[in-house]
């Protein structure tokens, strides 16, 4: 199988006509200068060192070397060997709470920042599985479908913020239901949901939703972030001024993390509850140990090829042509002496 490793370099082939145009312009200027100097019949007598053919010869060598150098940069490759790799894992969705309560700074730098950092650490720990990301408040959306493109998943997590969903409040049952609908039917008993939240729930139906999801083959784990004491939720207004989320009456609203709700969801969902402290890496490893207990499913077979590079077949003649170009110039200079 043939491929080119860096096809973008082929744009450099546009240099060939540009160089040709520049040389033709230079040649005409040079010829016009010689015509002003003397008649063409007298040039061989007045300037015996001038060789009209030499510039064209050197230019031809340069023009021939340019496309060879470009092809060498693009690196043509050929593969004669194919490998089949069978991947085993589970389908896993991380549901990330982006409600206004996650703005609270009772953990530093904030609940939202701590949750984002932990989730990205968790993605690194769970490579090999299909991972998706759900963002939720009182509504929920799949921001990243189940995928092995972990860089994309982490980019979604890194930009997650309360402003992305205008409807606020927290509905953990909606988060569970939306995530459950995102799994393929074939992945039953090979899938898990990890909810990262402060546990505030305005609907109160999350435990029942987790139990139904568990009966359908989904394990639900929860990760709690934040302190139980009431704390303010800072926000930056459009004019740049710092303020706080306020209640309907105008006073600053407070939020309190609710680990008991998350613990109940985990029990009903057949999973486990984890408190998010300062050690995200150890917590991610503990969750990985839990996920590894889930029976793995075999994903699609992936074929990989081992490619050999053949850039040197083009680089060698290009270098040879450039050396000839330089050599002709030196020979002509020595001959004039």
Tally of separate domains: 2
Number of helices: 10
CATH architecture descriptor name of the largest domain: 3-Layer(aba) Sandwich
Fourth CATH level, the homologous superfamily of the largest domain: von Willebrand factor, type A domain
Write down the CATH class of the largest domain: Alpha Beta
Biggest beta-sheet profile: 6 strands, mixed
Give the SSE order as H and E letters: EHHHEEHEEHHEHEEEEEHEHEH
Specify the helix fraction band.
40-55%
Distance between the termini: 54 Å
Averaged pLDDT: 86
Please report the total strand number as a whole number. Answer: 13
Global morphology: elongated
Q: Residue ranges: pLDDT <50 for 5 or more in a row?
A: 330-337
User: Radius of gyration over alpha carbons?
Assistant: 34 Å
* Lateral arrangement of strands in the main beta sheet: 5-4-3-6-7-12
Instruction: Please state the structural category.
Output: alpha/beta
Description of the structure:
The chain is 42% helix and 24% strand. With 337 residues, it is α/β, with parallel strands linked by helices. It folds into two domains: 2-75 and 310-336, no CATH class; 87-300, von Willebrand factor, type A domain (Rossmann fold, 3-Layer(aba) Sandwich), CATH 3.40.50. Strands 5-4-3-6-7-12 form a six-stranded mixed sheet, with helices on both faces. Helix 7 (206-215) packs parallel to helix 8. The longest helix has 25 residues, at 312-336. Residues 330-337 have low confidence and may be disordered.
């Amino acid at each position: 199988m043939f491929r080119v490793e860096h096809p973008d370099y082929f744009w450099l082939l546009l240099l060939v006509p540009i160089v040709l145009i520049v040389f033709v312009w230079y040649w005409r200027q040079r010829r016009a200068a010689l015509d002003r100097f003397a008649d063409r019949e007298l040039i061989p007598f007045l300037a015996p060192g001038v060789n009209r053919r030499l510039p064209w010869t050197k230019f031809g060598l340069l023009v021939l070397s340019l496309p060879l150098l470009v092809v060498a940069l693009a690196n043509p490759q050929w593969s004669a060997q194919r490998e089949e790799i069978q991947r085993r894992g589970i389908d896993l969705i991380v549901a990330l709470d982006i409600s206004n309560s996650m703005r609270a700074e009772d953990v530093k730098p904030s609940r939202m920042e701590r949750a984002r950092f932990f989730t990205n650490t968790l993605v690194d720990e769970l490579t090999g599985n299909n991972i998706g990301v759900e963002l939720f408040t009182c509504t929920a959306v799949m921001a990243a479908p189940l995928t092995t493109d972990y860089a994309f998943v982490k980019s979604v997590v890194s930009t997650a913020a309360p402003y992305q969903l205008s409807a606020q409040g927290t509905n953990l049952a909606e988060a569970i239901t939306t995530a459950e609908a995102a799994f393929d039917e074939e992945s039953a008993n090979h899938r898990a949901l990890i909810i990262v939240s402060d546990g505030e729930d305005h609907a109160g139906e999350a435990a029942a939703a987790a139990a139904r999801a568990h009966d359908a083959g989904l394990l639900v784990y929860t990760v709690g972030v934040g302190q139980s004491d009431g704390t303010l939720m800072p926000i930056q207004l459009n004019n740049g001024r710092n303020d706080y989320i306020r209640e309907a009456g105008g006073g600053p609203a407070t939020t309190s993390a609710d680990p008991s709700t998350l613990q109940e969801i985990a029990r009903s969902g057949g999973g486990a509850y984890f408190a998010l402290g300062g050690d995200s890496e150890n917590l991610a490893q503990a969750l990985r140990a839990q996920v590894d207990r889930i029976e793995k499913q075999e994903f699609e077979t992936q074929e990989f090829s081992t490619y050999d590079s053949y850039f040197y077949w083009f680089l060698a003649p290009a270098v040879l042509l450039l050396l000839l170009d330089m050599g002709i110039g030196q020979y002509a200079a020595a001959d004039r002496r």
